Amino acid sequence: MFRKLLIANRGEIAVRIIRSAQELGIPTVAIYSDADRGTLPTTMADEAYELVGDDISSTYLNISQIISIAQQSGADAVHPGYGFLSENSTFIQACQEANITFVGPSEEAIRMMGNKLEARAFAKKLGVPVPEGITGTQEEILAQQNELPYPILAKAAAGGGGKGMRIVRSASALKDALISTSREAKAYFGDATVYIEKYLEEPRHIEFQLLGDQHGNLVHLFERECSLQRRYQKIIEEAPSPTLTPELRTRMAEAALKLGKAINYYNAGTIEFLVDTHQEFYFLEMNTRVQVEHPVTEMTTGVDIVAEQLRVAAGQKLSFTQGDLRQEGHAIECRVYAENPEQNFLPSPGKITYYHAPASVRLDTAVTGTSVIESQYDPMISKMIVYSSSREECIQRSILALEQYVIHGIETNIAYLRALLRSEDFQQNTISTKYCDEKTPEIIKHMEEEKQALDKFPVAIAGLIYNLYSSALQSTPSIWTEIGFWRHIPTVAIEIDGESVSLDIYRRDSNYEVHHNDTPHQVHNVNISDGQVDFLVDETAYTYYVSSQDDLSQQVSWKTYKFHWRRNDLMAEGRFSNKDSESSISDDRISSPMPGKVIQLNVKVGDQVKRGETLLIVEAMKMENQIIAPRDAQVKEVRVEVSGRVDKDEILIELG
User: Fold this and answer.
1) How many CB atoms lie within 10 A of CB 29?
2) DSSP sequence for 354-416
3) Of 204, 249, 289, 397, which is the active-site residue?
4) H or E element: which one contains 581?
5) Which of 234, 299, 411, 545 meets the CB 3.0–4.6 Å disulfide criterion with 387?
6) Separation CA 414–CA 354 (nearest Å)
7) Could you tell me if 81 and 13 are in contact, meaning their C-beta atoms sit under 8 angstroms apart?
8) Of 195, 205, 213, 226, which Cα lies nearest the Cα of 293?
9) Is the peptide bond prior to 151 cis by the omega test (within 30 degrees of 0)?
10) What's residue 623's pLDDT?
């Protein structure tokens, strides 16, 4: 085995690799940018080295610097994880020249399958079905714009992970799509080549996990379904696929193995397919690395894929054959992102102020309760993986776990994930890769209606209990002692998401009686631990999660729904304040909705703009966010420039 392993990555995948390496007794080396200083991978690894640089290209994509650290630390192997340099043939060459083992496939395999155009041509030659497509320069593709079979999909030829992909439904939208796709392709993959293909209606996304060694052995670990996606990025994956028939599963597995064997593939890799409504499948791409969603395969096969990667890279044979592998039970992975589904999945970087992880599930993450989600990296916070004996039970366990997963301080998609799992469409498996794009407005509306319909009384009680508990910590261990302050003023005025709730509190022996809308209720059996508040109102049990905010308000969570809780009556100690006044920023001042980097500026001082026109584009968390004009106006002032970084709420442009 290896003397020492350097992990050329960050975040949850770095943590994941470190854990498998530790189980194999391999010392580990972490690398980190200034923004990642003190994060979980750096504390878990045996050694940690800082990457010098201000952005991704000078840190996690800096081949020479990473090789230098590997040599300095004495590492004789490098695991790239996914993303960054995981499918970069130049990095493999650099490792070879430095006599460092690259934990992954051969350079030739990466080069052949890393470019979608070459991979498609290769698959077609082998007789594996592929969707028809064309490539060329932007000018060459535009010359054919009126003959293309719309809708089409514009894609980055060297891409993956949904980056640089756009649906184009008409010739008039093609030019802008090509420009944006080419720009993202160049930024993320160093190759601006674009190709387009026919967009399949109602497709399923199915992928097969391959594992091979350097002795000619290659197996598949069955399939995963990844059809629930937003912006072409997967958010819920499951294994096995509820869509495939046994006959189709066999045919797709054979096609995946045929592709892998034809290129003498070894280490971990994934063959991705699309399956249409007629149960016909088409080769999409091969990812020559470990996938984000590999845990669902590990849970249903019992194989530690990362450990096998390390063994294979060390020259060992696979410890099993195809006949030894079984797919048992069901696993679901939910990707938790720092984003706001209610605002078209707008990235939500920032500091986590409260973090409560669900129990009895697998949670792959590098996040702790004090973590900061940086704007320059992918917005994924964690992967929550649940295993059970059946799909139905796995869904229900996943829903329960999401209800116990609480993150305050930033927006997340936790409530949205729960809504997807609760939907009849998912439970009956009547979804496709288009589901989130088409159904999200309806899902968001249902979530809002459900939240509005919830009884705010227990929310008010939960927030008050925590509020009194926080105050009592400064003086006495009894939270009820603090209530004595209102012995002569029993009324407490609370505001929850703008809705007023008035409570009258009276002591009744060792418990308290709370009057709400002239109805008395007994509040008892209170327990508070790390922000979790358990109590009974009469005979009904409640569990809420509460944290204090900088503005002296609180966030209260219940089953993924978050409430803004504030006291509007003032205590003598002055610990509470009235609600903040409305923002004075008007449509004249255009601010950034998130921290990020300006990558395109379309206007200058004096320009006349129309409502809805794109003023500039701010890139945050690997996503492009168009900032549009709220009204017809003249540009009075431009306060930013291309490549400049901006903060949340920073004024970008003033309109006259």
Assistant:
1) 24
2) EEEPPSSSEEEE---TT-EE-TTS--EEEEEEEEESSHHHHHHHHHHHHHT-EEESS--SHHH
3) 289
4) none
5) 299
6) 14
7) yes
8) 226
9) yes
10) 72
Token reading at 335: 């990707």
Residue 510 has pLDDT above 70, yes or no: no
Q: Which two tokens stand for residue 187?
A: 């930024």
SS percent in the chain: helix, strand, coil, step 5: 30, 30, 40
CB 91 within 8 A of CB 80: yes
Q: Which residues contact 647 (CB under 8 A, 6 or more apart)?
A: 592, 595
Amino acid at position 101, single letter: T
CA distance 527 to 534: 5
pLDDT in tens, 529-558: 999 999 999 999 999 999 998 777 999 999
| Alpha carbon distance 481, 576 (integer Å) | 18
Hey, what are 246's tokens?
A: 């046994």
Sign of CA dihedral 514, 520, 526, 529: negative
Q: At what angle do helices 116-125 and 107-114 cross, to 10 degrees?
A: 90
Residues pairing with 536 in the sheet: 524, 541
Mean pLDDT of the residues in the chain: 90
The string of pLDDT tens digits covering residues 237-259 is 999 999 999 999 999 999 999 99
Angle at 629 between CA 624 and CA 630, to 5 degrees: 120
Is 230 labeled as catalytic in the residue annotation? no
341 pLDDT tier (thresholds 50, 70, 90): very high
Is 190 a residue whose pLDDT tops 90?
no
Residue 584 has what pLDDT?
36
SS (HEC) of 24-44:
CCCCEEEEECHHHCCCHHHHH
Domains for the chain: give ranges and CATH numbers. 5-103 (3.40.50.20), 116-131+203-328 (3.30.470.20), 132-198 (3.30.1490.20), 336-451 (3.30.470.20), 457-567 (3.30.700.30), 589-655 (2.40.50.100)
Confidence of residue 594 (pLDDT cuts 50, 70, 90): confident
Give yes or no for a contact between 643 and 598, defined as CB atoms under 8 angstroms apart.
Answer: yes
Tokens of 172: 């008039």
**What pTM was estimated for this model as a whole?**
0.84
| Residue 356 CA neighbour count, 13 Å, CB half | 22
How far, in Å, CA of 382 to CA of 380, rounded? 6
CA distances from 571 to 70, 295, 578 (A): 58, 51, 11
- 199-229 pLDDT per residue, tens: 887 899 999 999 999 999 999 999 999 999 9
**C-alpha torsion 125→127→128→134, nearest 10:** 40
Q: Which of 188, 184, 189 is nearest to 89 (CA)?
A: 189
